[in-house]
Structures are given as C-alpha cells and as structure tokens.
Amino acid sequence: MRTLIKNGHLIDPGNKKNGEFDLLINKGKIEAVEPRGKINETSDIEIIDANGAIVSPGFCDMHVHFREPGHEYKETIETGSQSAAAGGFTTVAVMPNTEPVNDNRSITELIISQAKETAIVNVLPIGAITKGLKGETLSDMGELKAAGCIGYSDDGRPVSDSELMRRALEYSKMFDLPCIQHSEVLELTRGGSMNEGIVSTELGLKGMPTEAEDIMVHRDISLLPKTGGRLHVAHISSGGAVDLVRQAKAKGLPVTCEVAPHHFTLTHEACRGYDTNAKMSPPLRAEPDIEMIKEGMRDGTIDFIATDHAPHDLVDKQVEFSKACFGIVGLETALPLTLKMVDEKIISLEKAIDMLTFQPNRIFRLDKGTLGIGKVADITIFDEKTKYSIDPSKFKSRSKNSPYKGWKVRGKILRTIVNGKTVFKNN
Ligand code: DOR
To answer: Number of C-alpha atoms within 13 angstroms, CB side, residue 402?
Structure first.
C-alpha cells in the first residue's frame, strides 16, 4: 500500500526544502517528493489530505526519561512512546537512570526488546557513563555500544570526578559516541531545590547557583583538546554556559548542546506558590539567563531542542517543595512551546523544525531527520495555527507533572507517522 500526503506545506530543513510539496510513501520509505499535484493518484493509493498543515520530518527527542525498568508507575516504554507520538516525536533517546541503571548489555537489550514489543516510536537507549551512575567506575562502553546504545550519560547526576570524565571522553572517542553531561557541581547545589536568586531568598528555599553549571561546562570543555571525544551538554540553562559553548565552538572544539523548552519559556518566578511542577534540574533560571539562552538559539550556539521529559507521579510531587522530585513531562508540549520562540522572532518556523528534527539526528549521526528520497518515512504533520489551552489531564503520558496547565498556545499535532504507518492521529 502506498500513501500520498498531499496539499501540505512541506518543511524539510535538512534538504533545504520549504514549500508546497506532496510526498509519496511506499513500503515504509519515502518514494517521491514533488511539487503539489505532480504525483499521480492511482486508486490503490491511500490519501492523507494535509491541507493547511505543515508536513515535517518526524521530531526527534534525544533526552527523555521513561521509567522502565524500575518505576513503571511513572511511565513505561509503552506509555512514554504514546506520549512521544502525541507530541509529534518519532524517535526518542531514553536516559539510563532507570532501576536497574542501564549500565550493561542486559539492560540495554531489555529496553530494546520492550521497545520492539510495546513502543509505537523508535526508542534508542543511552548507556550510563559510570556503573550504577555512582561516578566511581566507568561502565563497559564498548559493550553498551555493541548492545545498541547511541551515547553515554549519567544524566540526573554529573560525572563529578575529572579524571573519570577525562577517561570517559577518551573511551567514547574509540566508540565514536558522544558523552552527554548533566553539568552540575554538586558541592554548589547540595540541598538546593531551585535557582539561587531573589525568588529562592524570598521563598526561603536553598538555591542552586548558575556557577554550578558554568564551572562543569568549563571543566569538560577544558578536557576536550587532549582527549578528543565529543561532548554534548544536556539541558543547558545558564547564560554563562551558553557563552562557554559559543567560545569553544569558535575554537573548533567538538562540543554541542541542547535546550529544554521549559528553560526558554519559564523563569524561576514560576516557583512562587511552591509549585513543585516548576522544580527541575537544572532549575528554571532568572530572566537574564533566559535572554542568553534565546540568544544562543538565535545564533546557533544551541544545537537542538530536547524535552528532558521526566515523568513523576503525584506522590513524588505533592510534597514539600524541597522534597519533591526534579522534573516535568515535556513531550506533549514541546511543539507549542517551541512555536513561542517563533512568535517572539527568536527563530524562524524552519529553524524550529530544524532544531526538532535534522540537528539532533545530525549530531547523533542517525540516518533520520529528513524527508529525503529513500529515507524511512518518519513524518510529523501539524497545524501551526489553531489556538488551544494545554490540559495535562489529557496527556498520553502516565504522569501529568506539567507547569503549563491552562497555557494558551498554538501548534497541534495532527498525525505522527513512523515507518510509513500512522501511530498517532488527532481527531
Ligand atoms: O529534572 C530532572 N529530572 N532533571 C534530570 O536531570 C533528571 C530528571 C529525572 O530523571 O527525573
């Protein structure tokens, strides 16, 4: 069965295509992309009318937390993948802070086989840098790659030991996979639960200063010239860190970074009222940092958008602020929040799509993220205009911990296609 997506506005940043094109899918692959009306419609072709909608490569999120194995009450690979599909994501990379930790072949294989059985989008495992995320001994990075991991990270925690990080970069170079750092100097954030600043002082909460992020990014960049390896800074949130990445890139060092939508749409002011859905790590920052994050998006210092989808149950969030778990769900709000940056003229619509599709795939060297002929048909169709209000109770995710309840936004996913098959459809 062939499928024709017609009448849409196709935006494929990787191929520099932006216009009125129809797209033909055959056996899960993209067979043709032609100007509107040019592809012959035979009776055996299924038609998807994308009139008024944007047709883009499937979104890719290189930073999510599905809680399987270990904390399935928050999210499973199945429910996480449904949330991803509802958010327009066709590929997600899952962080290793599960229980047990994904620090060895058998856990990687378990995740891959669960994904094969239950997931409706592509699920790619990230292996731990250190055994048990303890920051003491390196995991077997070669084994993790052989089992199917596409990068290494201790996310949720930094690799604090500089010698260990140096060796992680050296080894990861041998396996040609990036090290994804959760950049935080723990001595500076110990006991903290939000950004250090005027709001934390007024709320009487212990703060986490931006220097904690800056210093770690600086250290890791300093390790690069001699080690080689590729450093990817996860969820960048401080303006200082953006500056450091900008300078390192100017020197030609192999460093990249991602930003989560909450770090460009919210400030630490959201913590007032002790809303635990505004608690994440790194924390929501002050306005000057948000401005510097936006500048980093504008000038390309920040490579792509990743949600840091971190599902937590009510029992983990309906507690005192200082005791609540860090993190929010993000897959089902990523598109509308990213479009806010288009509204603010920080980035164009094409750049927004680029940061959700081509860039993450390019940096992780995955053969996805474009609508090129012969590529796997992972496609997202969305309506960029219709306004609606965010309702977390409707999320497909098993967890609803989102600070965006009631936000008026635009950008609705209409259809998500993986391997040529529709896995999500908005009715
Ligand atoms: O807010 C966060 N939540 N940041 C992290 O780095 C980890 C994540 C989680 O696993 O809940």
So the answer is: 26
